[in-house]
Amino acid sequence: MCLITIISPTQVFAETALNVYMNDFYSKSNEARQILKEIENNLKEGSRKKVCSRQKEAARLGLLANKSLIKAFEMEGTQPPMRAIKASQQRWESILNEC
To answer: Considering the domain boundaries, does residue 59 fall inside one?
Structure first.
């Protein structure tokens, strides 16, 4: 019984930290994509209101999402898919620097 009590909290804390990073990744990347969709719709309607500042905000969120994903892989003890992450990083940096 004592052994279960000692081991269980450690597993719960490890899962929680991993979940925090994964949730942060999904939350930020979804928010960034949503901003870009809104910008696209606004442009189709002919509105350029705050396009650049919103685009930069989306890019910052995307870059932060990538950092959270890398941390999640580190927490898991596995190698992150760096090729895909670097491609994503370049895409977000491009969006950030286009304005």
So the answer is: yes
pLDDT at 8 over 80: no
* Per-residue pLDDT tens over the stretch 81-96: 999 999 999 999 999 9
Measured at the CA of 31, the angle between CA 87 and CA 11, to 5 degrees, comes to 80
pTM: 0.79
Predicted pLDDT of residue 14: 52
Q: Residue 1: inside a domain, yes or no?
A: no
Locate tokens 């670097």: which residue? 86
Any domain includes 3: no
> Is residue 4, in this structure, part of any structural domain at all?
no
* C-beta contacts of 63-70 below 8 A and 24+ residues apart: 63/89, 63/92, 63/93, 63/96, 64/24, 64/28, 65/24, 65/25, 65/26, 65/27, 65/28, 65/29, 65/32, 66/25, 66/92, 68/21, 68/22, 68/24, 68/25, 68/28, 69/21, 69/22, 69/25
